[in-house]
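Private note to self, pasted from the team thread so I don't lose it. Backbone tokens:
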């Protein structure tokens, strides 16, 4: 199975770009525990697999109506 993102860890800016969200929204996802991350200094490095899974789950979520 090929992955869409070819790095194991990505930055908040890269995650925001991939998800088409703001960086603040991505920080909120980190704070809520919806994305796993590692800190390196002041930087948050997010597991790309989690970003892909989050994107897929938002696409598959049923909308009320």
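Design output:
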């Amino acid at each position: 199975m090929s992955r869409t993102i070819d790095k194991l860890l990505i930055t908040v800016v890269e995650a925001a770009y991939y998800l088409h969200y703001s960086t603040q929204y991505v920080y909120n996802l980190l704070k809520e525990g919806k994305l796993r991350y590692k800190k390196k200094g002041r930087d948050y490095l997010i597991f790309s697999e989690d970003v892909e899974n989050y994107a897929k789950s938002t696409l598959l979520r049923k909308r009320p109506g």
